[in-house]
Amino acid sequence: MNEIIRLDNVSLNVNKKKIFNLSFQINTGDFFLVNGANAVGKSLLLKLLFLKLMPTSGSIYLLGKKINQENKTDILSYRKRTGVILQNDYLIPFFSVYQNIEIASEIQSKKENFKKKIVELIEWFNLKNIENEIVNNLSNGEKQRVVIARALINNPKIIIADYPENSLDSSTTKKLFFLLESLNKLGATVIMTSKNPELLSINYKSIVLGE
To answer: Whole-model pTM?
Structure first.
């Protein structure tokens, strides 16, 4: 399997405190779960894996190439192939549900069947009745469903999800996990944290932070 991203003795300091020191790699088609107790840096690690943050020390390799802040073209290309669901991920409050999902296509050069895909996701996440509603008027659970739909609209090759089930009811959580597993079986690489790993029926790799 092809290596997507590799961490070599990567550490991140927050308020002069080292959060972790890690070495591992994620390959194409992996379903990779980040585990650990609260406040051990799981969300920070996902931001590193999305290259939203860069490490304090150590090296990150993307498709075998060592990456730093100067490799903006490589980082942008990687992000275009990645659907991301981060905690406190912001929607545009004065846009509608549909517009918030639609705007995700602006970073893509290929937009075939985009309207069909958006309709499918809106229906899958039960957003049809509120697709024209301004996001600012939505509940937290509704906003989370919009964030997830926006992350998946471009058929990402890589999905990074930080507790994607937050604010979702149990039925929607099960649908989400089924969808993530299905996308993984179709070839997508999934990297996530979760409070409900027991809902996963797929074989996955994992790392435990804080040990």
So the answer is: 0.93
